Amino acid sequence: MSLLPVEDALHRLLSTARPTRRTETVPLHEADGRVLAEDVAARLTQPPFDNSAMDGYAVRHADIAALGSILTVAGMSSAGHAFEGTAGPGEAVRIFTGAPLPAFADTVLLQEDAAVLEDGRIRTTFLTPKGRHIRPRGQDFSEGEVVLKAGDMLDAGRLTVAAAMNHAALSVYARPRIAVLATGDELVPPGTPPGTSQIIASNTYGVAALARAAGAQVIDLGIVADDKEAMLQAVRRALSLDIDGLVTLGGASVGDFDLVQPVLGEAGMELDFWRIAMRPGKPLMVGRLGAVHVMGLPGNPVSSLVCSHLFLVPLVRRLAHLPAVSREYPAIAAVPLKENDHRQDYVRARLARGPAGDLMVTPLDKQDSSMMKAFAASEGLLIRPPHAPAIPAGAPCTVLLLREPSA
Asked: What is the pTM of this model?
């Protein structure tokens, strides 16, 4: 099977991905970043009454038609405490922002447009147009009005309006369930003293973090040894958990101990593609186990993280009903860059902001795909397309932003 270009692989992966149809009802404080499964209509009218937009005096406009008009203050209306008395011609009511407008009033005179006299009366110092500074009932929304639509992603603004419409909980699409299975005789969990020839299993944590940030519920299946039967049992256990995706870590290449692909084939996986024209991450494997998406990530930590950024994150967002996002940005090479071969390179790099705000890219010296410290120190991945020519310092290039540069 020939190496598949990155863009072709991503297109093939997403073309078969169907967003989950499962829904659940969650309280507002758990709904941030979720996607609405139903339209949301207002359960009340907002504002529920005419109210003042400013601090001042509620008046009849006829009483302030002339500059220097003098009015008697008959009472006060504040937020939560409406004026319950009566006010006749020539009288005003002291009013504060958000307070109910008395029935007699048709205008709010700003407090800075009124001089307070010694006897407590006020004199107008500005000709205020009729109807000014009043928020009418229903100005924001009316009871029964659909304000939020199914498919809207909930953020701070949408959660605020949902709460104002008197909804304590919302129906949202369930997060896609992604199971992560690490493979390898050499792996032991963090916190365990490794034995001879053993290493700490680290990939799960970065891959799971990216999947969660993209909108998934992650199920950690732990570590399974390089044993066909044990691996097959782990896969069958994963499929019993009503998952949307299965991500395996390691064992997807062609060595004597790379058992993931044959085991998944025995479990019924239909292989879509395997081996991508990219560096790092060439051994990426993608297929389906019925309705379950399968992604076999390379065992090298950096390779698994790069493949997760490029393929797992877009897949999870598609399953979660979330819009596609691109973290690729134009940048400037801070140093000369060599020509590239037939594979698309994702080069770990430090980023800095230039004087004009441009992203300046400096590749790290060491690029071995097992070196996690270098990846953790990188703010971005410099993208070098297949057969890219050498370019001098100052030439334009493209980066995949991992985090904002500190300087």
From this structure: 0.89
